[in-house]
UniProtKB/TrEMBL annotation:
Gene3D superfamilies: 3.30.70.120. One of its GO terms (molecular function) is hydrolase activity. The keyword ATP-binding does not apply. It comes from the Eukaryota. This is ATP phosphoribosyltransferase. Keywords: Hydrolase. The lineage of its organism: Eukaryota, Fungi, Dikarya, Ascomycota, Pezizomycotina. InterPro entries: DUF34/NIF3_sf (IPR036069), N-reg_PII/ATP_PRibTrfase_C (IPR015867).
Length: 115
């Protein structure tokens, strides 16, 4: 198979309160994230690490945690997973935004190069 025929791979990374992690993982996995191609046929794969997020909600916001103008520090989980194909990462991000409890979910998408 030529490299041009191999779908692009992306890493989706997001940050979420631990209590909302299961619903977010279910949403992104239903959208096709977390599948590793190949003979192993692995699905629902991800890596999570605990940490702390910090934010100050601005005026006119309706934060899930805290109140506008007050600095908050909360326990969160960083979750990373593989998305094969631009359509899969786009659908996974859309699913994440629907499932995530925050007004503005923090997430990152990186294209993975094949060497």
């Amino acid at each position: 198979m030529s490299l041009s025929a191999v779908p692009a791979r992306y890493k989706l990374v997001f940050f979420v309160p631990p209590t909302a992690l299961p619903q977010c993982k279910s949403a992104i996995f239903a959208a096709g994230a977390g599948k590793y191609p190949g003979k192993g046929n692995y699905t629902e794969c991800c890596f999570t690490t605990p940490g702390f997020g910090q934010f100050r909600p601005g005026p006119g916001t309706n934060p899930n945690v805290g109140e506008p103008g007050k600095l908050e520090e909360v326990g969160e989980v960083r979750c990373e997973t593989l998305c094969v194909g631009e359509d899969v990462v786009s659908e996974a991000v859309a699913a994440l935004k629907k499932a995530h409890p925050y007004e503005e979910p923090a997430y990152e998408v990186y294209r993975i190069e094949d060497f």
